[in-house]
Write a structure and sequence with these properties.
homodimer; Rossmann fold; 7-stranded parallel sheet; 13 helices; 14 strands; 40% helix
């Protein structure tokens, strides 16, 4: 069963890991948000891609909630001594990813091929496809004006309210993304922030491709990142509210109503199930909190059985 | 006394450290070879500059003979896992230097300003000036053809015989180099490989500037890197022989005869003193082996007293 998952952020990465664990190698393809990408110290940093890559390689630091397990900070401390900005912390192991990636991209290789070379070096059977080869940079408008995403997300710790979101750059999907979607038998929209994790992926032609697949009868199943009204991690709940949405599974379902055909919500939100079904979704109510590897595999299996 | 030292390699860096130790802060300017520079993993690596920088910051790893003291190798090991070449070992602390430098140069700042920003961050009072802001890359011709310098020096461990040397790039000295030489009251040519450490510095217009200063009566003193017929470190001895020179203090003195006015040789080579004097040099015979900080300061003081 060829499954394509659209993800960004930790929740999406966890689901991707669960899907990889329960599917035969090669059946899963992950399309990852690149709107969070940034350049730090001249190096191309791809937080969403790398969260998925480390997760699928079994190297994600679950204790810290981001980055590579067993990380050290020698380079970062030395960069700070040289007067480099250090609010965006990059570990030594993680920096090797950025250094190798940046060097290979600067040689003229396309981003998709470059990151695949990193993934295969870590033994990952699942292609993790950047949504675009050309740079896309998410910006959020706060009461103090437009900010680069990582300025808002990391430097300001998601303090300001988000009034508007935009995606600067070339949203043209890569040939690999188009091919994966065209071959997909199931499309999964991960439990990721619908505004800034899934939003950039769907802002360009990908939305039309997904909708077309749904019309062709392929299940497109979205999983709510909001449980009991709050985001398990990150600012999705506050962002939904400040942008005029409801911070709930139902609010997320409304965002995906023209795109997805099925929706997965948490058991704590069972009372919202009728409203979500009324939007035209097939629904699955299940435990969506992925506390560990068993939880990730359990949710992945439940989602696949639901749409099978 | 405004002293300008031309250096490259460990011997030159040691003398520079000795000169900095005995001169008032600001009196010393170091002009450093950039022909050894190379790009590794997309980062600008400057071995001769960094040897001097770490030495003048009291951070040189004397035990290993290169690089930053207390170095770790996390990034390098991770780069190797990604399939990056790893014969040119870059430590974590050292990589921070290359990352910060490369980022600042890519922003469009000139190399001289960029490396000075690194030096001042490490508290170094002495300007360490790259001989040129534009890339110069030394190549050596062996029996197998032309090789990039670091391919010969590090990868092949100086195994092949060197038949010819060339310096590719723009040898135009920087305004800072020209200014330092014009203001110099003493010019010191460090105990560095005359072919590939001092050679690139003197291959362009700097030779004429130095010779002009000598004609104006400014002492230009060269220190032999060859002691008892051998190089204390590196391939200078073999390289001198394979390029048709004598591997001796006298052989080095002959190379500098049109440029320097004074020559310092080691006591073990006392018997060569008359030949060197006969070339027109004022001579100083002294212990030139710098075993420790006291030895570096001692040689620096001896050289300065000799030319004063």
């Amino acid at each position: 069963m060829r499954v394509v998952a659209l993800v960004g952020g930790t929740g999406g990465a966890k689901l991707a890991e669960g899907l990889q664990a329960v599917l035969p190698p090669g059946d899963l393809t992950v399309i990852v948000n690149t709107g969070d990408d940034t350049e730090r110290h001249g190096l191309l940093v791809m937080p969403d891609h790398d969260a998925v890559m480390y997760m699928l390689a079994g190297r994600f630091d679950f204790e810290r909630g981001w980055g590579h397990v067993g990380e050290t900070w020698t380079v970062m401390d030395a960069l700070a001594e040289y007067g480099e900005e250090d609010w965006f912390r990059l570990g030594d192991r993680d920096l090797a990813t950025h250094i190798a990636r940046t060097a290979r991209v600067r040689e003229g290789r396309c981003l998709t091929d470059v990151v695949r070379s990193l993934q295969t070096a870590l033994g990952i059977p699942t292609p993790i496809l950047p949504m675009a080869d050309e740079p896309v940079r998410t910006q959020v408008r706060t009461d103090d004006g437009w900010l680069d995403f990582q300025e808002y997300f990391v430097h300001l710790r998601q303090g300001p309210e988000v009034r508007e979101v935009r995606f600067n750059g070339d949203l043209t999907p890569t040939p690999a993304v188009v091919g994966a979607l065209e071959a997909a038998e199931v499309i999964v929209i991960g439990p990721s922030n619908p505004i800034v994790s899934i939003g950039p992926i769907l802002a360009g032609p990908v939305a039309g491709l997904v909708a077309g697949r749904a019309r062709a009868g392929i299940p497109v199943v979205a999983i709510s990142p909001i449980v009991g009204g709050v985001a398990l991690k990150g600012p999705a709940d506050r962002m939904l509210l400040s942008l005029g949405h409801e911070s709930s599974a139902r609010g997320v379902a409304r965002i995906y109503r023209d795109l997805a055909t099925a929706f997965v919500l948490d058991t704590v939100d069972t009372d919202q199930e009728p409203d979500i079904a009324a939007l035209g979704f097939r629904t699955l109510v299940t435990d969506t909190v992925m506390a560990d590897a068993a939880g990730r595999a359990r949710l992945a299996r439940a989602v696949l059985e639901f749409v099978a």
